[in-house]
Amino acid sequence: MKVFLDNNSSSKVSETVVKAMIPYFTDIVSPPGSEYGISAGIEAKEALDEARRVIAEKLNADPDEIVFTSGQTESNNLAIKGVAFANLNNENKYIIASSVSHFSVLDSLESLKKYFGFEYDLIKVDSEGFIDRTHLSELLAKNPLIVSIPHGNQEIGTVEDLEDIIALCHKFNSLIHIEASYSFCKVPLDASKPDLVTVTSHLIHGPKGVGALKIGKKVKIVRLMDGGLQENKKRGGTENIPGIVGFATAVSEYTPEINKYTQELRDYLWENLKKNIANFQLTGAVDKTKRLPNHLSLVFNYVEGESILLHLDMLGFMIATGSACSSKRLEASHVLTAIGLPTEVSHGSVRIAVSQYNTKEEIDAFIPELAKVIKRLREMSPVNAEFMKEYFEMKASGKIHDEHDHHDEIEEHD
Amino acid sequence: MKVFLDNNSSSKVSETVVKAMIPYFTDIVSPPGSEYGISAGIEAKEALDEARRVIAEKLNADPDEIVFTSGQTESNNLAIKGVAFANLNNENKYIIASSVSHFSVLDSLESLKKYFGFEYDLIKVDSEGFIDRTHLSELLAKNPLIVSIPHGNQEIGTVEDLEDIIALCHKFNSLIHIEASYSFCKVPLDASKPDLVTVTSHLIHGPKGVGALKIGKKVKIVRLMDGGLQENKKRGGTENIPGIVGFATAVSEYTPEINKYTQELRDYLWENLKKNIANFQLTGAVDKTKRLPNHLSLVFNYVEGESILLHLDMLGFMIATGSACSSKRLEASHVLTAIGLPTEVSHGSVRIAVSQYNTKEEIDAFIPELAKVIKRLREMSPVNAEFMKEYFEMKASGKIHDEHDHHDEIEEHD
After folding, report:
1. Deepest in the core among A158, A176, A327, B323, taking most CB within 10 A?
2. pLDDT band for position B405 (cuts 50, 70, 90)
């Protein structure tokens, strides 16, 4: 039995998406182009235009604003560095981003600082991962060129309320970039408001290696991929038509019914976890309507997330710990640190993300195995058990408070 | 009947490549990673390692030197800008490249000049597109950080002799980047010598949206895609495993027999063109062993390349004019200009590139149709006929000579 519950790291490409791509692999080979009326180029051009229309429609953007990229990382690099490079000779070289941003945002900022003379600050979040509006206002007063905020968080699933943030950024004349890779097709987003929006294919049952960036018409941006005049001169290179067609097909297929299904499955998982396992804590937004619909993130007390993963993997269940991309960094997740979890606690983090391909039967099989794994690990290796026991006791008794801690909203179970 | 003779713009993905990719779309979904012994991640990791080994072996490089990218354009941008950015604070910010380089090289240089304070010069080529060694030496004396040279030219098919060029660059302590997208798997290349080598998948029956850059271990480079620690920390982002597996499968499949086949077909095409059509001229290397094996580039006198394309397309034959990527620029091909062709002549350029999927029967069908199209166009619309007639008469009589013109080696037919 193989049960994939790590759909926020990557997702199975649907059979219909594969089928939609195949003709563009094997038959429609010419690069898109209609300037000379070449029929082969027209077929590819029409597919490209239609894909652009589908993505734009989903985002409430203009098709001309959609630039296809090689995925989330390129879209985020293009948004942040593209705007920065357009302001390279400005006196103002200041940027801000959420402290729970994706690594491709944070590392772009580090690179801009290290090599190109930019400065940046990270906006504080509260204990559920929501942007601290007061801190945002303070930093906006320093006149950042661009503000980067995640819509749905990659790790703790918190879905940010964007309306007031976008208005605030525009009030201060800052561009606003929304990292919407994890929420795209899962949570409604009116991308006509923010200046830049990142979306990606591989988290919605589309192929890896393709994504898009919505770039508002007024945004001055320097392209990162110089070369051909593709993508409205904003991204050179032969278009990955099969990938783009696959992406658009995945978007078309991702109906509200899928979200209803995954949310019910997620809630079923959550209710049954509470019934069967003690001593764990939800991370991220407590209000389920403010979480990604398919997503649960937890910290299990007294155990290591990596150990949970390893044991579950041997039983055929795949989940994630912390941010999947961060595993090689060998340090505590910056997201869990930002929401105020001590390193010792965040080591026990896991992330479970279901998809339309998961079933209740799989969840029914998963929960008792997870319960057994947790029990065995706690018996075997009480790592930091004393520290964590003390921490949770102090937290429960109200002795630990930090300024962003909405302790009373966090559900804890034992 | 559909006959695709534009295999230097893009190529059909082979059925076995598609088959090899499918499990990585639908079943092996986890991102690669073995640090926690996760089985799903191990399958992807093994596929990634094996693909890296295949590409490295083909290039005589170390697998650790291979960085997977989203294709030719990204590889060229990473090579040129990555090295430039690593030297951003140097006093020396000088770069040189062949004047017949791909647009993704030339536009990277323009971007470095416009935004980042770099300077560059382009190295002259002779009338067949070979690097002018004297000019190269002169420019090397100005101490460029990096020299970029195409191995097989995208447009005129000339295959550069690299050995002396690489030695010369290293003698002057310059890094040397080889653009080998068009020659990869088609012409042997020992990539252990040059510091950086670009290769791509979509020209050898692999998928679009994937390529690689060989980066020598001593090369200091700033990555363009910040984010995860993938690709030896030189290219962040979830790996496009299906694409990478497809790329490696295409490389494995591209045997010397394929080159023998395409070369014979190309030669057959050439011999029959000469028998059936008057007034055209080969562009690029005259010595067939110094051309891409599957490639012919021609200028037809007194006609427009675009018109030839359009008419052939209506008959089901697909070829290219100038550089396929350049068509939207609406200016004479920079490659044909660099080899000394007047604009009026280069307008008549076409490029024909065969593949293993083409047949003699297709060539037999193609030639009379091309002959008819040329004849009709010359009758219909003698654009610039007077100028070009005069030019070729003067050229034939030896009245036109420019310094790079190896006139006596160019075959002309009438």
Report:
1. A158
2. very low
On chain A, the residues whose CB falls within 8 A of the CB of B227 are 73, 76-77, 102-104, 107-108, 325
Reported ipTM: 0.91
| Closest in A11, A225, A243 to B29, CB measured | A11
Known catalytic residues of A? 325
- The catalytic site residues of B sit at 325
Q: A24-63 as b/e, with b when 16 or more CB fall inside 10 Å? A: bbbebbbbbbeebebebbbbbbebbeebbebbbebbebee
Q: Inform me whether the pLDDT recorded for B393 exceeds 90.
A: no
**Residues B239, B48 contacting (CB under 8 angstroms):** yes
Which residues of chain A have a CB within 8 Å of the CB of B155?
none
Q: Do B31 and A10 touch (CB under 8 A)?
A: yes
pLDDT of residue B327: 53
Q: What is the pLDDT of residues A119-136, one digit of tens each?
A: 999 999 999 999 999 999
Residues linked to residue B196 through DSSP beta bridges, in sequence order: B177, B215
CB contact under 8 A, B71 and A15: no
Cβ pairs A/B, distance under 8 A? 253
The tokens describing A297, both together, are: 């993130």
Q: Which amino acid is at B199?
A: V
Q: What is the pLDDT of residue A77?
A: 98
pLDDT number for residue B414: 37
DSSP states of B32-73 as a string? P--TT--HHHHHHHHHHHHHHHHHHHHHT--GGGEEEESSHH
Q: Does A179 touch chain B (CB under 8 A)?
A: no
For chain B, percent of residues with pLDDT exceeding 90: 78
Q: What is the mean pLDDT of residues B192-208?
A: 98
pLDDT at A267 over 60: yes
Among A23, A16, A22, smallest CA distance to A40 is for: A23
Long-range interactions of B60-66: CB distance < 8 A, separation 24+: B60/B190, B60/B191, B60/B192, B61/B191, B61/B192, B61/B197, B61/B214, B62/B217, B64/B217, B64/B232, B65/B214, B65/B215, B65/B216, B65/B217, B66/B212, B66/B213, B66/B214
Residue ranges of B 205-264 with Cβ closer than 8 A to chain A: 207-210, 222-230, 236-243
Q: Transcribe A348-385 into DSSP letters.
A: TEEEEE--TT--HHHHHHHHHHHHHHHHHHHHH--TTH
pLDDT of residue B346: 87
Mean pLDDT score across all residues of chain B? 90
pLDDT computed for residue A20 by the predictor:
98
Contacts of B40 in chain A (CB under 8 A): 2, 4, 6, 313, 318
Pick from A6, A74, A242: CB nearest B225 = A74
pTM of the model: 0.91
The mean pLDDT value for A40-45 works out to 85
Measured between CB atoms, which of A29, A241, A324 is closest to B11?
Answer: A29
**Could A77 and B15 be called an inter-chain contact, meaning their C-beta atoms sit closer than 8 Å?**
no
Greater confidence, B84 or A385? B84
Query: B2, B241, B325: best mutation site toward chain A, by most A Cβ within 10 Å?
Result: B325
Residues of chain B with CATH 3.40.640.10: 14-253
Residues in chain A closer than 8 A to B83 (CB atoms): none
Q: If you average pLDDT over residues A154-179, what whole number do you get?
A: 97
C-alpha–C-alpha distance, residues A69 and A55, integer Å:
13
| In the block, residue with structure tokens 């057994």 | A372
- CATH tag, B256-397: 3.90.1150.10
> What CATH number is given for A14-253 in this structure?
3.40.640.10
Q: Which of residues 312-351 of B touch A (CB under 8 A)?
A: 313-314, 318, 321, 324-329
Name the pLDDT band for A404 (thresholds 50, 70, 90). very low
Write out the residue limits of the CATH 3.90.1150.10 domain(s) in chain B.
256-397
